[in-house]
Design a protein that fits this description.
Number of helices: 8
CATH superfamily of the largest domain: P-loop containing nucleotide triphosphate hydrolases
Structural class: alpha+beta
Bound molecules: adenosine-5'-triphosphate
CATH class of the largest domain: Alpha Beta
Distance between the termini: 35 Å
Strand order of the largest sheet: 7-8-9-3-10-11
Order of helices and strands: EEEHEEEEHHHEHEHEEHHEEEEEEEEEE
Number of domains: 2
Radius of gyration: 25 Å
Shape: globular
Amino acid sequence: MTIGLSLQHVSHEFGGTPVLHDVNVDVAPGEMVCLLGPSGCGKTTALRLAAGLEKLQTGTVRIHDEVVAAAGQYLEPEKRGVGLVFQDYALFPHLDVARNIGFGLRHYDDARRKQAVIDALKRVGMEDFIHSYPHQLSGGQQQRIALARALAPTPRVMLLDEPFSGLDVARRSELRDTTLHVLKNAGIATVMVTHDPEEAMYMADRIIVMNNGRVMQDGTPEELYFRPANHFVASFFGEVNRFASKVENGVVSTPLGDITVGDVADGTEVDVLVRPEGLRIGQVINGHDIRANVDAVRSLGGVSLMHLSLAAGPHVHARVPRRIFPLKAGQVSITLDPEMTFVFPRG
Ligand code: ATP
């Protein structure tokens, strides 16, 4: 793979407390990779090490084919060709939009700087705001300017840290879309930090899921959702129904039916995880159906969430298309969708 940005075997500690363990991140030019994980898992630290805002302790950072940080080697942030966008816009309040964007282009002559500012503003659809001051702009508009400012010096790599989290839902989805198109068109290697799985799936070509400073899985959104490597990754992408069981004769029994597992030894204690959309709901037809009582149905907009009590005991959730069938039916039958059912050894 051609390298846009590469972190190899990066480990890091603060005051003797390890926060990153042997982290690898590879991003090709034009690729969008999301670092996804819960608060405190080390995402921002990885980003800061890539930018050079934090001194690397162990491992190597490359940008294109150049080593920018390694044992005994350190290139200053401003020489790395990296654009940064953070959650809090960080625009200079006393400078107008043109001067905010032009600030990082002081080494350009006036005509070139003016043109670069206009080009950057056009890319984010903000050319009419060139003389505005930050306090005259909404949060979404300020973040567009922050993106334009990061793009103006034509960086080789873009690093985004929770760039949309301060915005309301409508602004967020609008700006996600603009950001994705702008960065893809520019062919820039991009890493975006987020704790929101939906945002990562919307934006990313690849997602790197982290927990406690370690990479749990690196793959496409599709791979992570349909083939999670472990319990943590499966549950991080949304609610799951969980059943404890044990492998007997290559089969795991659950209240929702039996699951054949090829490669797990008999006697192994397992957790079976089923996404709510992995419960197929139908009308009760014959006596062999696995049945459940419908306790409640809540509309989530495009889909509905059914609260179900199985005859065998546990309470489960099913996510169904909004008008699949008369949802008020007292009893329904359930079958499992194997694509949405995962079996992991416990612990
Ligand atoms: P969040 O989404 O909350 O920002 P994160 O995944 O980005 O979390 P980091 O900010 O990288 O996580 O922090 C990882 C760990 O390192 C945390 O436990 C944090 O408290 C600690 N940490 C981060 N920066 C420093 C620092 N400068 N000094 C000491 N500890 C730090």
